[in-house]
Amino acid sequence: MEEITIKIGDGGRLAFIYSDAVADLLTLGRATVARASHVEPTPFGDGTVGWGAVMVADGVFLGPFRTRAEALAAETAHLQRTQGL
After folding, report:
1. Is-cis flag, bond preceding 64, omega within 30?
2. What is the pTM of this model?
3. How does pLDDT run along the chain (85 residues), one tens digit per residue?
4. With the C-alpha atoms ordered 8, 80, 33, 60, is the resulting torsion angle positive or negative?
5. Beta carbons of 47 and 68 less than 8 angstroms apart
6. Cα dist. 12→37, 38, 44 in Å?
7. Alpha-carbon distance 54 to 63, whole Å?
8. Where are the chain's structural domains?
9. How far apart are CA 20 and CA 63, in angstroms?
């Protein structure tokens, strides 16, 4: 089962990493979904292509990783570490 962290801010504002498991929360009121990163193909120094994530909030580049799943996992870990999500 997926672990979900929901951060409650001023005025009851909720912040969380979106997944299908939390989709129903979007129906409870006005919602804004914002992109946290851009996960894109990224070249390795040896000419092969992997995956990287550019974090929108702080401009940090994560990667390159061999698989897209690894880049997404790094993105999630970065958000958990830096945003408390």
Report:
1. yes
2. 0.80
3. 678 889 999 888 889 998 899 999 899 889 999 999 999 999 988 989 999 999 998 999 999 999 999 999 999 999 999 988 8
4. positive
5. no
6. 25, 28, 43
7. 9
8. 7-83
9. 25
